[in-house]
Amino acid sequence: MNRTLNEPARGIRIHCGLPKTFWVYAVSTVSYLFNRGPSVPMGFKIPEEVWTGKELKYSHLRTFGCNAYAHVDPEKRDKLDTKAIKFYFIGYGSDMFGYRFWDDRNKKILRHCDVTFDENVLYKDREQKIQETTKQVGVELELLKSTPKDGTVETQQTPETVVEEPEVEQVTPEQEKSMDDEMRSLDKNNTWILTELPIGKRALVNKWVFRIKAEPDGKKWFKARLVVKRYSQRKGSSMKEINSLKASLSSEFEMKDLGAVKQIFGMRISRDRSAGTLNLSQEQYVEKVLDRFRVNDAKPRTCSKRPRVVALALPNLQLQGTISPSLANLSFLRELNLENIFFHGDIPYGLGHLPHLRVIDVQNNQLKGNIPTSLFQHWRVQVISLAFNKLSGEMWQGPWYVPELRILNLRNNSLKGIIPPSIGNATKLLNFSLFGNRGNIPKEIGNLSQLAFLNLAVNQLTGFIPSSLFNVSSLLAIALGLNNLSGPLVLDEGNIVSNLESLSISRNQISGHIPSNICQLTELKILSISFNDITGEIPKNIDCLSKLKEFSIGYNPTDGTIPSSLGNISTLQYVYCVSNRLEGPIPPELGKLSNLIQLDFEENYIKGQIPKAIFNISSLKLIALTLNKLSGRIPTSTGLHLPNLEELHLTGNALEGEIPAHITNVTKLKYLGLADNFFSGSIPTNWGNLRDLRLLFLHINQLTSEHELPFFHSLADCRMLEYLDVGNNPLNSILPNSVGNLSSTIKFFEISDAHINGLIPPGIGNVSGLTTLVFQRNNLMGNIPPAIEGEVPTDIGGLKAIVELDLSSNHFSGMLPITLGDLQNLKILNLSNNSFSGPIPLSFASLISLEILDLSVNALSGTIPRSLEELLYLKAINVSFNDLEGEIPNGGVFANSTLQSFLGNKDLCGMHKLEVPSCPITNSGEQSKSKELVLKIVIPVLTSSSLIFFLVSIWIMKQKKKGKSKNVEKFWEIKTHQLISYHEIQRATNYFDGSNLLGVGSSGSVYKGTLSDGTIVAVKVLDLENEEVCKRFDAESKVMRNVRHRNLVPVISTCFSDCIRAFVLQFMPNGSLENWLYKEESHLNLIQRISIMLDVAMAIEYLHHGHNSPIVHCDLKPANILLDEDMVAHVGDFGISKILAVSKSMAHTETLGTLGYMAPEYGSEAIVSTSGDVYSCGIMLMEVLTKRRPTDEEICNENLDLRKWITQSFPGSMMDVVDDNFFPEEEQITSKSEICIDSVIQLALECTKETPESRINMKDVVTSLNKIKITYLGTRI
């Protein structure tokens, strides 16, 4: 579901306090309001208002979750019983009376229509109110006839449980006789019940109401109830005089008997839901019945001198069967309304030959087949509404003759074919709505001189948008979104007489520029052209559209700056310029837009400071500036003048300074995203004012806090909070007990890589709604709190909702709690890089939802439980680097596992493909002893284990840098390691087409691809025939799961199957460092080279020192350094990297790196350590300065290596060996430049010393390069 329905639905449900059970009803309600209520594209009007110009009432609209009081039928209750039952409104049906309610007493969802929404008028006259609000079909037809230009036919009906009586003050003799007869019958039988007239009711004349009675043999009868009441109360009358009679007459008859009734004053056939389905199967009698009455209002009426049916309106009765062809015999029929009756079958062809037919409305049924061509050759028909059916075939391609047609609604069918040009003959057409067709938009639509609303959205239309559309002066709204239209948007040259208010062409393939003469659309209020291929700049004179309310150009390659004239459009309410190529500053003039509600410039190249005036626009509800290049500070007054602000998105910029203290004064704030900036200072401690806050993202900054993080105490007052991330900040503190006071609504809680020490407070178990808990890469220690594993009081409930739990890279110890097996919803469990000991609990086999299990780099012992084979959804398991022994199971997830999942254990054996020793075959005596030994070990362990553990976490690696999708960031950060199928990779790379090939290496190929959401990626496909390469895949996958840094290549996903092993990586448009060094057309100056090597050094420093277990890259070289659009370097290719155990500083390897970049100890002793990466970094420093490879033929011919060759020239003659392209020809080489180069070479020599112990570490490298860069830049200034 997209954000348009998702967010409002969630909002109305949460606002009324109803549980998630009512999600679908909330979505349905939002959809109803969008379709039936006023909308932004219509200028806050609905289509009827647009083409009629009349203001409509919306009194039927109700607040989701409001109280409703259903009246109890007086004949079904005693006098002292309650007269109404309290329900809760949860949605609309197919028509305005189709309300749905929640019966909290009986825990049922029902549809009841005899309701009052105001408790104060419960006992007032409901009939009077109903009579005032009920529309009369007969009157509407006369109105339509007398005012052909309006063409409006209202179809609102009386609620089906309300019986409308005719209003008369004087009864006719026939009525008097009927009532007297019924009163006499009171003394003759016991089928009549005398009741008092309800308070506030008027006594009215008699009425028949019919119900179905089903016999045991399956035969259905109609049961009639005659309701008899005296006429209206008169002044001075006593209660006895006005007592009414309500009679229940149990007579049974068939439908044909109804036709024998001579006269019916007012009648409504309504489906009684408790009595089954009304089936009009006796078709031969239908005409007789309908010939006797009019289903419209309650007043007595006949059809003319002779009984004639002129209107058949039975909407929302949910009748069964097909539309009878015999209806075509009602030759005087003007209106046929069978909306929402669940009819199936075809539309009878003969309906199009009814000479007087004006309206045919059969929408919301299950009709199929073709549309009768006769409907398009009917000279009187005014309304054809066939929407929401299963009609197929093509629209009539022959000549149209519908001179009176005003509304044509064919949406949501399965029609195919093109829009016929002859539609231009329907010259009185006001509204044309179509769905699911193909072909071009015929230029003949420009002949529809009275057309007010054109809705051709969500089709498969191709070709250009006819420029003639903009010459239809009556046209108010054009909706062409979600098609395949192409070409430029062209307005006819010359004067355009246009009243167009809404132009929506989003999600097409429109190209070219915004038309220069768009200013001729002077009445335009909505301009929506997002998701196209529109280039060029926003017109500087955009303020010529002085009535514009919505300006939406997002997701186009539109460039240039934001025109300051945009600030002159005082009516502007919505500015949506997301993912364009806009640059430059935000004009201060935008601060003048006093009516602005949403300002969205996300994912652009906007720089400079945010104008202070923006934060003074009191009408603003959303400010979204994520993923730009904004800098400076947020004004300290931010929050003082934003009483309506609900969302503030500033993630992914270069903002600095403290978070303004007044930000917590924005009491309506729901989303605050300040992540991935340079904010510093303390995290505010007065969040309690933000009662509606749902998402708070402060991660990846330099924020600090006092001891025990006091801001958590105020966050406990944010009872709507759902998502909280304060990770990647130097908090240097312990988690306080107040964490347990966070709202029960919180779902996502991350505080990773924040230097958190000590224990996890037991109170974490109080946060019962938590589904994701991420505490990875901290210094937490001790056992897992009992609260997390489920041992909490029953009134708290624990964290039973947990789905993802990640406690990796901490100092946890002790045994794994067996109660982890109680977490039935857990999908991802990552406890790697800790100090857990003891066996893997057998209870893990109860984790029925588990998909990923990572227990690597611990001290676990014993065997791998065979019961883990039974976990159906388990896709990946990693138990490497423990002390496990025994046989590796071969079923379930183990059948597709690789050696990388089991490396570093004591004595595992099993399948040959895992390259572990085969398990020895033991005799029965040995097996018996073995079983006895297992029992002696396992049983004491299981019986002595206490219920200790329940925790939550997340396998979600969120995007921490620019270039990621905005839509996900607004909910939470993008997940890395998304699931992307092989089919999606094929589609993204155009089935690995050669035109998308970026390069070929020894391990495979790299392709450029585009995912379905538009994300451009690089797909690294490994060579499956190379066994060594396949092993590297597992190693690289493992490493990338545990790392996240701005200078590492982000892995979006991995794809593993029998036919492919691939990495989906963030695309780096500037390629590799190797290309920039050795391609003739590429040149890097000195400062660029130093900056790139500083980026590389920071990435390697993070791998070495940012984890409890250091990670060694093992293959640093220019080909593995990729450059993004800003020339920021990212280290990639972790195929032969190693994770060192916590207690070890080095390891051995059988896989060597690249010749020339390897440290000496790699080749001689196969020793892997962090010092090896330092050596490779030093070689690269030399290479980027000299543009000489370490395997340079000239150097090797002299029996030298790169280090020795440079040493010969250092320090006196370095300028003779450095790259000639360092400096432009016009720039002189200064002594300062030489000092800078000498400093880098000196650093490189320190990195490449012979023995590992004598080399500096990467922290020293980063410090030195930073100092060199700052000194060099300072001298140039």
From TrEMBL:
It comes from the Eukaryota. It catalyses: L-threonyl-[protein] + ATP = O-phospho-L-threonyl-[protein] + ADP + H(+); L-seryl-[protein] + ATP = O-phospho-L-seryl-[protein] + ADP + H(+). Its EC number is 2.7.11.1. The chain crosses the membrane at residues 933-956. It is an enzyme of class 2 (transferase). One of its GO terms (molecular function) is protein serine/threonine kinase activity. ATP binds at residue 1020. One of its GO terms (biological process) is response to other organism. Residues 148-181 are annotated as: Disordered. Residues 992-1273 form the Protein kinase domain. One of its GO terms (cellular component) is plasma membrane. Keywords: ATP-binding, Cell membrane, Glycoprotein, Kinase, Leucine-rich repeat, Membrane, Nucleotide-binding, Phosphoprotein, Receptor, Repeat, Serine/threonine-protein kinase, Signal, Transferase, Transmembrane, Transmembrane helix. It is a single-pass membrane protein; Single-pass type I membrane protein. It is found in: Cell membrane; Membrane. Its main location: membrane. Pfam families: LRR_1, Pkinase, RVT_2, SH3_retrovirus. Gene3D superfamilies: Phosphorylase Kinase, domain 1 (3.30.200.20), Ribonuclease Inhibitor (3.80.10.10), Transferase(Phosphotransferase) domain 1 (1.10.510.10). InterPro entries: Kinase-like_dom_sf, Leu-rich_rpt, Leu-rich_rpt_typical-subtyp, LRR_dom_sf, Plant_RL_S/T_kinase, Prot_kinase_dom, Protein_kinase_ATP_BS, RVT_2. The keyword Oxidoreductase does not apply. This is non-specific serine/threonine protein kinase. It comes from Capsicum annuum (Capsicum pepper).
